[in-house]
Amino acid sequence: MRKGISFGLKAKFMLVSTFLVALTSITWGGWFWLNESEHLMERLEANGRLLLDSIQPPIIDAILYERLGVVEENAGLLDNFIEQIVENRELQVVYAFITDTNGKVLAHSDYREFGKTYRDPLTTAALRRHEFYGHTARLPSGEIYDMAMPLQVAGKSWGALRVGVSLAQVEKEKELMAREIIMFSVLFFLIGNVVFYVVGLTMSRPLLKLSQAMSEVNHHSLDAVPLSQHMHRNDEIGKLQQSFSEMLQRLKKAEQERQVALARLMQNEKMATVGKLVAGVAHEINNPLMVMSTSLFHLEKKVQPELVKYISHHKEGVQRIEGIVRQLTDFSRAGSLDLQRVTSDRFFEEAAGFATLAIKKFPVRFQSSNSAGATLLLIDKGKMHQVVLNLLLNAADASPEGGVVQLLAYLEDGNYCLAVHDQGAGVNPGDEEQIFELFYTTKPGGEGSGIGLAISKSIVEMHRGKITCESRPGDTTFLIRIPLQKEPDHG
C-alpha cells in the first residue's frame, strides 16, 4: 500500500506535467502556425493587389483606344497585358483575363475562353461593387487565390480584370514552417519533461519519509501512529497523512459492515427455515379449506336466494385464502432450481406467448421485442416464466386503459436482461427496494398480498441475478439481469 501511494502520486504528477507541456507546445505551435499562415495569405493578396493596381491604368487606356478607334480592336494590346501578368515572377499566375461590363471575355490567357461570358459571383461583385475582391477557390489542379479588379475611370466601369494565383508556393512555405514548429515543440516537450521529472524527484523525498511512518501502523487493531510522533506538516503531505488515518477509519467501518452482512446472511438462513415452516402450515390449512369450499358449494344450492350473496362473500374469502396459501407454497418451494440449458429466443417466445394469453383480460396493449438473439441460458425455465408473468400481470394491472405493456430482451455487460415496462402511476419514491420485501404491498387492502415480488426476487437471486425497479409517473420499468454462464470445459 505504501509503495502504491508513492508511485501513484508520482505518476499523476508526471502525467499532469507531461499534459501541460504538450498542451503548451501544441497551443503555441498552433497559434504561431495560424498566425504565420495568415501573414502569408496577406502578403500574397498584397502582391496580387499591387500587380492589379499597377497594370489597371494601361489596360483601361488600351480599352479606350480601341473604343475611340485610335488602334484596331484586334491589335493585341490587351493580350500583351495578359501575357505580362502571366509571366510575373513573384506570383504563380494560373490564369488571367479581361472582361467588358457585361462579363464578356476580351482577352484571356487561354485563347479558347475568348468571347465567353462570365457571370460568376466574383466577376459580378467586381463589376457592381467597384472595388478589389478576392477569395480562395479550388480547381482540379489545386487551390488558387482568385482576384478581381474593376476597370474604372472617373466612376465609369469599363470591365473587370480577373487573375488566379496558385497557392502551391504558399502551401510549401506552410509545410516548411510546420516542420520547424514541430521540431521546436518536440525539443520544448523533452526539455520540459526533464525539468518536471527533476521537480518530481525532489517532491517525492518527503513522501518516502511519510511512507516509513505509515509502515508503523498496527495492522491488528488498524490504529495509526499519532501525528504528534512525527513531523507535522501543513502542506499537501500533511493532508495525505490525515487521509491515510481516515482510510483506516473507513477500513474499520467496512469490517463493521461485513459483520452486518454476515448477520444478514444468517437472517436469510432463518428465512429459509421459515419457508419450510410455511410449507407445512400451508399443507395443514389446505385441508380445512377444502372442507369449507365443499360445504359452501352445497349450502349455496340449499339456502334461500336472499342469503346467496352472503355465501358468495364467504367463497371469495376462501378463494383469497387459497391464493395466499398458494403463493406461500411457491415462496417455500423457491429454494430449489431445476436448471436446464435453453436458448434465449425460445424462452422469450414462450414467455411472450404466455403473457399474451394472461393479459387478454386487461384493457392494455402488449408489445414484445427480443434483441438478444439465440443466446444459451442456464436457468430454471418454469420459475423464470413465473417471474416474467408476475411482473407482466402487475404491469397490466397498474396500466391505464389503452396503455402499453412492453417486454424487452437484450444483452448487456455479460448479462441476459429482461425489462418489463408500463405506463402506470408508478411506485412511490423510496419504495423501489421495499416492494420486494415479503408481505409489503402498495395495493389497497384486500387486493394484494405482497408475496409475488418477494418470490420473483428470490428466484432471480438464486440465478445469481438481480432485479431492480425504476419508476416515475407514466414510466415504470422492472429490470432483470441474469449472468450468462460460460460453456463448461469437456476436455
Automatic annotation (TrEMBL):
The chain crosses the membrane at residues 12-34, 181-201. It is a multi-pass membrane protein. Keywords: Cell membrane, Coiled coil, Kinase, Membrane, Phosphoprotein, Transferase, Transmembrane, Transmembrane helix, Two-component regulatory system. SMART domains: HAMP, HATPase_c, HisKA. This is histidine kinase. It catalyses: ATP + protein L-histidine = ADP + protein N-phospho-L-histidine. It is found in: Cell membrane. InterPro entries: HAMP_dom, HATPase_C_sf, HATPase_dom, His_kinase_dom, HisK_dim/P_dom, HisK_dim/P_sf, sCache_3, Sensor-like_sf. It holds the Pfam family HAMP. Residues 201-256 form the HAMP domain. Its EC number is 2.7.13.3. Residues 237-271 form a coiled coil. One of its GO terms (cellular component) is plasma membrane. It comes from the Bacteria. Residues 280-486 form the Histidine kinase domain. PANTHER family: SENSOR HISTIDINE KINASE TRCS, SENSOR HISTIDINE KINASE YKOH. GO terms for molecular function: phosphorelay sensor kinase activity.
